[in-house]
Amino acid sequence: MTATAAIARRSLHGELVALIRDLIVDGELSPGTKIPEQALCERFEVSRTPLREALKVLAAEGIVTLHPNRGASVSTITAEQVAELFPIMGALEALAGELACARITDRDIARIRRMHDDMLAHYRKGARGPYTRLNQAIHNALFEIAGNGALQQMYNSLMLRIHAIRFLARKSPERWREAIDDHEEIMTALAARDGSRLARILKQHLEHKAAMVREALVARRTQIAP
Amino acid sequence: MTATAAIARRSLHGELVALIRDLIVDGELSPGTKIPEQALCERFEVSRTPLREALKVLAAEGIVTLHPNRGASVSTITAEQVAELFPIMGALEALAGELACARITDRDIARIRRMHDDMLAHYRKGARGPYTRLNQAIHNALFEIAGNGALQQMYNSLMLRIHAIRFLARKSPERWREAIDDHEEIMTALAARDGSRLARILKQHLEHKAAMVREALVARRTQIAP
DNA sequence: GTTTTGCATTATGAATGCAAAATGCAAGTG
DNA sequence: CACTTGCATTTTGCATTCATAATGCAAAAC
Q1: Which of B63, B82, B84 to mutate to test the interface with A (most CBs of A within 10 A)?
Q2: Distance between start and end Cα atoms, chain A
Q3: Strand partners, A204
Q4: What are A6-23's pLDDT values in tens digits?
Q5: Can you give the pTM of this predicted structure?
Q6: Which of B14, B66, B94 sits opposite A91 (nearest CB)?
Q7: Which of A90-94, B69-73, B115-119 has the lowest mean pLDDT?
Q8: Is residue B9's pLDDT more than 90?
């Protein structure tokens, strides 16, 4: 025999990393929340050692912050950090678009076109939830088609870090319209397999997203401190 | 008083992360080397718990690979991974260049020009070591001027991951000449504060680097299996 | 009434202990 | 002689334990 499929090696701390990450993604642990070790130990029925290892890993990923001798908490994000991360995501998406254009099949184009049309339908209905889901699906599909695993991983990691802003992603109608326009252009460039154009559009699309978040942050600030 | 400087909080595992990372960077632990916990515990005079935590973090960073139940080893890198990482580094450098152009001062330009000239002098003398050092210093300076901490961190992290190829970075004279030409163009675009042009050149520069590494890898392969 | 100080409680950091898995080696088998 | 098989040793994963720093609260001082 030539290649035996390596049996799945499990490690408790690895499971915990995934588990806690899900907890954060699903919003059960919201940004800023303290993470008491003991409580999670009881919840998952493990001892503190693997749990602590998991927290260290999540801290390295940036979604958990460790306060030496004072425990861990779910990372919060500042406007400054958002301002730093969005351009990076823009650069990565641009690269993904470029790579995707070089590899995309007609079948893939048709598939994304379907998602795009679905998304438009939800936009017209004003259905934010399904719209967002399809929006993300399209962006994910781009990364998959790009076929660069490391790139996809880095992007996902960044998405996780800015996850904290999800709850304030209340686009204004103008910004939403803008996003739709961007997506139309994305579809066109993708169908034409015009990599450099798609890259440019995606970068700009992310700049628009960043502007949207900035507006939301400002709105929120004024709301909190009247 | 308004702002007391928070006293430096130390954590053993944090120290160990830095320490082991240095060991790897300095080449004391070369890629593929197994990392026996006990040996390092004795070397650093710590117990296994913090050391294991440190290894988990380094694994999350990608420079250490964990083999469940079989210990850890310094990550090796395949040609495929190099092919995935270089385009990402290209995208990040391009972004750094663009941001740097928007913020660079005349003083900074003069400083980089000096480094550039020094580097050229070393090139003419054929001094690879000092050349490489200045080359890296220039790229680092670009990231610093760009002023995006997250970007710099991600780039450094990637540099660490491809660190394994450092020993085979034997440029052919043609490739070296090519790199010099790239750097001349980089200086020109930087002095003109032409962000998009600098971005394009940096991306291309990284493509050249990738090609160089690919050649070195091929050469090495044929050398090993004659 | 507000602030400060001391102590008890709790939580975190690190070390040790124990069970399970992997490794190495020698003896056995074809 | 090559290849497996069984056992002793080593290594790793996790639980538990011990030490230390932080937190909360009540009493004392201003």
Answers
A1: B84
A2: 71
A3: none
A4: 566 678 899 999 999 999
A5: 0.90
A6: B94
A7: B69-73
A8: no
- Rounded to whole angstroms, the Cα distance separating B204 from B137 reads 19
Beta strand B34-35 with A34-35 is unpaired
Nearest to A120 by CA among A71, A171, A62, A183: A183
Matching residue, tokens 């990231």 = B143
Which is nearest to B180 in space by CA: B119, B95, B113?
B119
Cβ(A177)–Cβ(A169) below 8 Å: no
The Cβ of residue A78 has, within 10 Å, a number of other Cβ atoms equal to: 10
Per-residue pLDDT of A105-154, as tens digits, reads 999 999 999 999 999 999 999 999 999 999 999 999 999 999 999 999 99
pLDDT at B10: 76
C-alpha of A201 from chain center: 19
Which residues of chain A have a Cβ shorter than 8 Å from any chain B Cβ? 9-11, 13-14, 49, 52-53, 56-57, 59-61, 66-69, 81, 84-85, 87-88, 90-92, 94-95, 99, 148-151, 154
Cα separation of A98 and B112, whole Å? 31
End-to-end CA distance of chain B: 72
Q: Residue B222: what pLDDT?
A: 57
Give the DSSP H or E segment for B145.
Answer: helix B128-146
What is the C-alpha to C-alpha distance for residues A17 and A44, in angstroms, rounded to an integer? 12
SS3 A74: strand
CA pair distance B95, B115, nearest whole angstrom: 21
